[in-house]
User: Fold Myb protein from Artemisia annua.
Amino acid sequence: MGRPPCCDKIGVKKGPWTPEEDITLVTYIQEHGPGNWRFVPTNTGLSRCSKSCRLRWTNYLRPGIKRGNFTDQEERKIVHLQELLGNRWAAIASYLPQRTDNDIKNYWNTHLKKKLIDFPTNQDGASTSSSSSDATTGAKGQWERKLRTNVFMAKQALTDALSLDKKSTTSWQHAPHITPTAPINHQPELPLMQPRSLNTTNYALSAENIARMLPNWEKNSSKSPQTSSDSINTSNLQFQSHPTSEGLKNYNNSEVSETTSLLQDESKPDMESLGFLEKCLFDDTVAEGYDRFMNMSLEEADALF
DNA sequence: AAATTGTACAACCGCCACACC
DNA sequence: GGGTGTGGCGGTTGTACAATT
Assistant:
């Protein structure tokens, strides 16, 4: 028998989150930290199911999420990682700090998939072209990639295991008593926020917005920067019941604060301890190295691990 | 200017893995 | 070892907005 849904359908609100709901959720997480999602709706009074709360936090409210404007480098990484890992968006997201799996998934479905269909052979070097342009070598290429992926995953698991102690030093200051469990939370908490679009009228929201709504948010994060945008007077905000209010429009148009270098430095992986592939992925300057990896023979690739 | 079509993305749904009892 | 609850993940949908006719 199938399990009942995580929350009964009656009385559970659906659809876009309002600023008020976001504030409520963020305020609660500020005090209690993320986790124990099942208690969040009852403790906050939100008419949302626990899953919805977790998703909202994970994908949009938590610090360190960058939205929109994927760079070429990020695009290349996504394409390569998708080829390596398949549609394992959470795993791919773990190599793209500041991006959520949902964001990457959406970007793939709306942009990259189409691009690859339009330009299947010259997308990203030999690895793609070799598999798509030659049917006879295609099967072998797939087999090799599969094997390589297995090796890669084993390596990743090892790296993750070895870096467990390092994760405990990440900037989870606002919830030090709770260790993030989601893979994406293993990534740096970079308060670099970007609105969905500078001219959007959506309440696309960003944690920066929430940060502005909540003066204590910055206060509680000892390493957060004090930028000019922080001086925005929250009393000027006039939230309306609908997300597309003018107040929020102004929000999204306001200056985007800079990244906290401290947080970034702190949470960036220790490059010394990373393997060849990880270095390729994290360091934009060695993207060619990644291509080299993809073009290596299986034996050569294995030797790296 | 209005209607239609296309695009982007936030959010939901259902399944699965894991932890706990 | 089996049952149950929770969190996580990937696929998919709904909807707002933009572009085109």
In short: The CA atoms of residues 122 and 181 of chain A lie 38 Å apart.
